[in-house]
């Protein structure tokens, strides 16, 4: 099935998405709506996420490319937090309130379940 123009689709992120992800992340930092972080991230810093440990998905449209992302990280390197994670969802300013964040989170949960990261 082919996506319709403007339709949100999700997929696993790749290192080629690092620039777009850095853009959304930095908008969240600048707008102070999504994080307590204060230092912008470079595409190179985001590219380091693709070492295999971090799960990252993007939401995109055929016309615009990526408009949001969600990522799951280990909470801490401390042994007492083994198996505990956290997640982030960031949406490009002009796509906020349009379902992109919800799509990103849903795709992240689905990908995490497929990896066996959750057991209930």
Helix and strand layout, with pairings?
Blueprint lengths: L8 E4 L5 H14 L11 H5 L7 E7 L3 E10 L10 E7 L8 H15 L6
Antiparallel strand pairs: 1-2, 2-3, 3-4
Strand order of the largest sheet: 1-2-3-4
Sheet with most strands: 4 strands, antiparallel
Low-confidence stretches: none
Q: What's the total number of strands? A: 4
- Through-space gap between termini: 32 Å
The helix content is: 25-40%
Proportion of strand residues: 15-25%
Structural class: alpha+beta
What's the number of helices? 3
- Give the H and E element order: EHHEEEH
Structural Rg: 14 Å
Report the principal-axis shape. globular
Nearest-integer average pLDDT: 89
């Amino acid at each position: 099935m082919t996506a319709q123009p403007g339709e949100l689709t999700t997929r696993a992120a790749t290192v080629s998405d690092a620039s777009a992800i850095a853009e959304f992340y930095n908008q969240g930092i600048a707008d102070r709506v999504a994080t307590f972080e204060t230092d912008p991230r470079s595409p190179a810093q985001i590219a380091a996420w693709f070492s295999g440990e971090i799960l990252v998905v993007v939401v995109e449209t055929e016309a615009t490319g990526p408009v949001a992302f969600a990522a799951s990280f280990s909470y801490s390197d401390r042994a007492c937090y083994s198996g505990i994670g956290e997640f982030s969802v960031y949406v490009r300013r002009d796509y906020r309130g349009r379902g992109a964040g919800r799509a990103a989170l849903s795709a992240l949960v689905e990908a995490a379940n497929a990896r066996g990261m959750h057991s209930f």
